[in-house]
Amino acid sequence: MSALQSWRKAYGALKDSTTVSLANLNSDFKDLDVAIVRATNHVESPPKERHLRKIVAATSIARPRADVAYCIHALARRLAKTRNWIVALKTLVVIHRLLREGDPAFREEFLTFTQRVRILQLSNFKDDSSPVAWDYSSWVRTYGLFLEEKLECFRVLKYDIEAERLPKQGQGPEKFQGHSRTRELNSEDLLEQLPALQQLLYRLIGCRPEGAANNNYLVQYALALVLKESFKIYCATNDGIINLVDKFFEMPRHEALKAVDIYRRAGQQAGSLSDFYESCRGLELARNFQFPTLREPPQTFISTMEEYVKEAPRMVPVTEPLELPERLLLTYKPEEAENAPEPVPIVEEKPQVVEEPAPVPSSSEIVSSPPKPEIADTDDLLVRVE
């Protein structure tokens, strides 16, 4: 078995050197091609920082967009052609590092590219070189799903959670606790963003390595990147749940139903995330991490939420009718339909009364007639119903 592994390492090194030689023939992006090949070679170790720095520099905002696009195409080509779990995993690590630490220009270009080519969907990827490689291949597929969900979450939130700087408690003249943007969202945005965050958290929890992958150093290196992001994802989700509870008893029924499902899922994910953290505490690369203390939302509150849903209004009371005339029409449409025939004959009779008398009495009638419709309008429909 050791002889076979040594042969595979030699074969991988030969392929890397051949690829580098071919990359040197490319006069336009020679340095970038060489850096990508060396950062994602067949050596079972994390990508070297000097190669990553060259790739980051090639995708900065100071470079032309064509350079950024070429880098993405080169990474996609590298990921699509390989059947080696080491090369695939190191390529995903490079993409992850660029999304976390690179220029926003790379993320924007990468988002556009992945809408046309789903390069992170690795459902068919499998390294058949050994039974041990099957466990590694499974984790590579899971890691790709997490990165794809990370991009999808960015499309919904319109900002990167990892780049968010949370203020610390006690800063500034007004001492306040640090919290994420989800703490200040309105109900509509909250009900849109929280499911995206929970789906990302679901993919993150699924990144728990199994079998031989649990003790592999390269897998643990990539898992450490996932763990670093988990803290802010949890913080954003937790702040959103607090905001959700504050706004819940003012929600209409259709929003309250969504809120109950989100709250119920938050309780389930808190337990799963706690188990995930517990399994990662013993890893070599996670010994210096400060894991947050998770507090599961009280599940007894769900019954209170469900009781409110039964009596919740179907529409929120409108406090500013001038700004939302369409909602007023939808709300009071049945009442207007019943009373609609009444004002029509009244309007038709008034011009007849005005046309017939021409003398002075007509002018007095014309002067006295305006107050009558005004009184009827101020009393709304109550006067006519009586």
From TrEMBL:
Q: Where is this region: Disordered?
A: 336-386
Q: Which SMART domains match?
A: ENTH (SM00273)
Q: Which keywords does this chain's UniProt record carry?
A: Coated pit, Cytoplasmic vesicle, Endocytosis, Golgi apparatus, Membrane
List the biased-composition ranges (Low complexity).
Answer: 354-369
Outline the extent of the ENTH domain: 24-161
GO biological process annotation, one example? clathrin coat assembly
UniProt subcellular location? Cytoplasmic vesicle, Clathrin-coated vesicle; Golgi apparatus; Membrane, Clathrin-coated pit
What is the name of the protein in this document?
A: ENTH domain-containing protein
Traced from the root, the source organism's taxonomic lineage reads: Eukaryota, Viridiplantae, Streptophyta, Embryophyta, Tracheophyta
